Amino acid sequence: QVQLVESGGGLVQAGGSLRLSCAGSGSIFSINTMGWYRQVPGKQRELVATITSGGSTNYADSVKGRFTISRDNAKNTVYLQMNSLKPEDTAVYYCNANVAYYSGGNFRAYWGQGTQVTVSS
After folding, report:
1. Residues 105-114: pLDDT tens digits?
2. What pLDDT does 43 receive?
3. Cβ-based neighbours of 30, under 8 Å, separated by 6 or more
4. What's the pLDDT tens digit per position in 12-27?
5. For residue 112, which of 4, 13, 63, 103 is within the disulfide window of CB 3.0 to 4.6 Å?
6. 15: Cα separation from own chain's centroid
7. Where are the beta strands (DSSP E) in 9-88?
8. Are strands 30-39 and 115-120 parallel, antiparallel or unpaired?
9. Which residues contact 7 (CB under 8 A, 6 or more apart)?
10. CB distance 42 to 117 below 8 Å
């Protein structure tokens, strides 16, 4: 089994910063794409940012220039540095990772439990 554990959420004022972390553990041989998604009540979960094992990144238009995704492959960890936060960034943030258990194995998607980010105006 694979576990993804997120940390770093909390309450911050508009214009402030937070850094989210997500560490993977368990039966991991390799991870290709890792990413962050967010969800507010009554709406679908939406992509925030993704990063490949080679470091290629992709961002939602709403966070470009404010958020930065990075990863430490040796630690199976992905980070999200969030700057210039806005009230509309308030959501539960979920970590996602595509994990292979062994060499040549299929990749399977895993999700973290979510961490609340609240931005006050």
Report:
1. 899 999 999 9
2. 97
3. 53, 99, 100, 103
4. 999 999 999 999 999 8
5. 4
6. 20
7. 10-13, 18-26, 30-39, 46-51, 57-59, 67-72, 77-82
8. unpaired
9. 20, 21, 22, 23, 115
10. no
Find, among 56, 55, 59, 18, the residue nearest to 36 by Cα: 59
Decide if 86 contacts 67 (C-beta within 8 A): no
Assign residue 114 a region: left if phi > 0, alpha if psi is -120 to 50, beta otherwise? Answer: left
Is the Cα torsion angle 97, 101, 107, 108 positive or negative in sign?
negative
Structure tokens at 94: 């979920």
Helix ranges, 9-101 (H): none
CA distance 60 to 26: 30
Q: How far is CA 81 from CA 19, 27, 72, 105, 106, in A?
A: 4, 27, 14, 31, 30
> Is 62 in a helix, a strand, or coil?
helix
